[in-house]
């Protein structure tokens, strides 16, 4: 098999944002990279040298992939910068499941890789490089969706992007802007190959297959690829290099949100009382951000019936008017794609919803999913957002967005889940632009969402109603943020409010530093009617609030821990087992030059030569 060999200098130059000239190094180079295209047809991978010799020392690289099929790796655009895409050409009809770039890297010293979950709530973090996942495990991970996917082990694949490193060579790989397919990566090490890393970057491989006629060409998603002896600062800047076309980041938000004390029982009385107390607490802060009152799930008649219920007798319009009269802004939560299956809307307009699929909410039951490729469903969703704007809502916390990517035929007969998802967010964005509304995306896949939202939830909930405030959710949030720093460079990342009540003081500080590191905004979410003045004062320490609102991320000294785990844990597992299994970066650098040590373990730890108690942060 002829292999395509690329030089170390080529890839390092590409990381430094200049064009790369493709050169060939000698075969005794300690770091050898192979770049080969592959296609999955009939449940089997073809190409990449499996079906005969590939040709091309430079891109394009062409590989035979079975009778009548060739697969090609080429660069995207006019320059030869490292943005690659695979295309398969069919001389005979075939059913195509996925396209991939396959790579082998030798001599990296790599110890770990980042496994990113599908959406906001999905477990994400650094893992040790393990054996190749089995076909059965990969297929199960691809099939997992909704709540099941969020508690993923992570070892099978990483959605949307990955980083491999921890040695003398780092690999960055990310899909740029998925147009029609979902994209994911696998990283593994074969037995006996102590210093060899295998990487597979895939477009598709999940959901409906593409039945292609003879003479057709199918093109995969474009991937950014970079390798080199990278400094941590170059890894930290990955997001701004990858997703420069995302929306410009606006000033961060400061305010009070109802969810983490009142859950879905919030009413107008408590909302108004907490608004007054939050105003008293937050108005004196020198932070330049505007102040916001956000009412979470509780105000609506039902999911899909987005009109105020009896708990808000004044209506949203009058509540918003009163809030604005006192210099604050008003916003609400909604799940724009979901409609309770019990509502007449579902039986009256069955063609407005994805056929054959539902989301089963653990508390509120079956939800049907709007299909905006139906013009009438699109008009309905537009009307919902317009009505909220008319009532005075200036921020929308749009939740459960992953439902828009369920695998099912679309009404228009041609859109893929990714295409219909992007169309739905564009529809919401257009109305938001018209009325000056900010959008915070939650339960959302990051890359297809970045260009449409002003903020993005980067982790799971910081507390759940069944458990209330508890320690395991805090390190879980920090680990997710560390894994998703590239996204947080181009969009305000919401790591959820700090929980100030009931937790020990050291754990409150741990959560406050996580919010400060993310620099995505600062919200209170305890009931200020009963919160002790001491805890409120602890939460409003000026340095941490200013970091949270400053828009500059704090960064870990390394994204890869010294002891990466084989799989990802979940906060729920730790809650039940009463042990902390989360492994997070321990040393963080703030934009003002301070170092903060984070001990997520259950015992005192020595970090950077300093003793740090369990469940604690220590600022040096």
Key features?
single chain; 620 residues; alpha+beta; Beta-galactosidase, Chain A, domain 5; nine-stranded antiparallel β-sheet; eight-stranded parallel β-sheet; globular
Give structural notes.
The protein is α+β, with helices and mostly antiparallel strands and 620 residues long. It has a domain at 8-230: Beta-galactosidase, Chain A, domain 5 (Distorted Sandwich), CATH 2.70.98. 25% of the residues lie in helices and 27% in strands. The protein has 17 helices and 35 strands. The strands form seven sheets. Strands 3, 4, 5, 7, 8, 10, 11, 15 and 16 form a nine-stranded antiparallel sheet that branches. An eight-stranded parallel sheet has the order 28-27-26-25-21-18-17-29. A hairpin with a 4-residue loop joins β3 and β4. α10 packs parallel to α11 (417-435), α12 packs parallel to α14 (505-518) and α14 (505-518) packs parallel to α16. It is globular, with a radius of gyration of 25 Å. 52% of the residues are buried.
């Amino acid at each position: 098999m002829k292999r395509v060999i690329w030089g170390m200098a080529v890839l390092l130059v590409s990381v430094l944002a200049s064009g790369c000239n493709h050169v060939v190094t000698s075969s005794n180079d300690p770091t050898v990279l192979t770049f080969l295209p592959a296609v999955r047809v009939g449940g089997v991978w073809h190409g990449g040298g499996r079906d005969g010799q590939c040709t091309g020392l430079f891109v394009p690289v062409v590989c035979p992939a079975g009778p009548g099929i060739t697969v090609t790796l080429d660069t995207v655009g006019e320059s030869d910068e490292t943005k690659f895409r695979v295309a398969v050409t069919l001389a005979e009809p075939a059913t195509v499941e996925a396209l991939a770039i396959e790579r082998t890297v030798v001599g990296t010293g790599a110890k770990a890789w980042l496994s990113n979950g599908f959406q906001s709530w999905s477990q994400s973090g650094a893992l040790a490089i393990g054996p190749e996942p089995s076909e059965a495990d990969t297929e199960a991970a691809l099939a997992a969706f909704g709540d099941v996917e969020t508690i993923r082990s992570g070892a099978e694949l990483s959605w949307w992007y990955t980083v491999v490193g921890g040695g003398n060579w780092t690999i960055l790989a990310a899909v740029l802007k998925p147009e029609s397919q979902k994209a994911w990566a696998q990283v593994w090490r074969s037995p006996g190959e102590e210093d060899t890393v295998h990487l597979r970057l895939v477009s598709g491989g999940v959901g409906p297959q593409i039945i292609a006629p003879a003479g057709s060409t199918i093109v995969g998603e474009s991937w950014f690829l970079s390798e080199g002896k990278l400094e941590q600062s170059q890894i930290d800047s990955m997001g701004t290099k990858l997703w420069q076309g995302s929306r410009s980041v606006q000033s961060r938000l400061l305010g009070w949100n109802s969810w983490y004390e009142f859950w879905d029982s919030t009413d107008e009385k408590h909302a108004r009382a907490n608004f007054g107390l939050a105003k008293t607490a937050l108005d004196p802060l020198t932070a330049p951000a505007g102040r916001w009152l956000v009412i979470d799930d509780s105000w609506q008649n039902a999911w899909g019936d987005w009109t105020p219920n009896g708990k808000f007798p004044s209506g949203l319009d009058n509540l918003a008017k009163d809030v604005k009269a006192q210099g604050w802004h008003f916003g609400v939560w909604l799940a724009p794609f979901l409609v309770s299956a019990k509502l007449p809307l579902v039986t009256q307009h069955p063609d407005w919803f994805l056929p054959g699929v539902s989301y089963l909410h653990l508390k509120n039951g079956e939800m049907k999913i709007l299909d905006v490729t139906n013009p009438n469903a699109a008009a309905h969703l537009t009307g919902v957002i317009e009505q909220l704007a008319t009532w005075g809502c200036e921020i929308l916390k749009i939740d459960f967005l992953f439902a828009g990517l369920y695998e099912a035929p679309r009404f228009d007969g041609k859109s893929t889940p990714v295409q219909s998802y992007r169309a739905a967010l564009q529809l919401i964005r257009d109305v938001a632009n018209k009325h000056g509304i900010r959008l915070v995306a939650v339960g959302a896949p990051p890359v297809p969402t970045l260009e449409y939202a002003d903020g993005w939830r980067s982790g799971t909930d910081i507390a759940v109603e069944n458990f209330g405030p508890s320690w395991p959710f805090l390190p879980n949030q920090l680990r997710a943020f560390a894994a998703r720093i590239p996204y947080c460079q181009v969009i305000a990342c919401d790591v959820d409010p700090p929980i100030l009540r009931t937790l020990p003081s050291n754990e409150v500080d741990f959560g406050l530093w996580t919010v400060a590191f993310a620099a995505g905004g600062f919200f209170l979410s305890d009931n200020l009617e009963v919160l002790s003045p001491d805890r409120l004062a602890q939460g409003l320490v000026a340095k941490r609030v200013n970091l949270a609102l400053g828009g500059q991320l704090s960064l870990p000294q390394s994204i890869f821990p010294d002891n990466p785990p084989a799989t990802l844990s979940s906060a729920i597992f730790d809650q039940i087992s009463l042990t902390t299994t989360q492994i997070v970066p321990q040393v963080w650098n703030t934009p003002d030059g301070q170092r903060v040590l984070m001990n997520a373990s259950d015992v005192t730890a020595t970090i950077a030569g300093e003793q740090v108690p369990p469940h604690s942060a220590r600022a040096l």
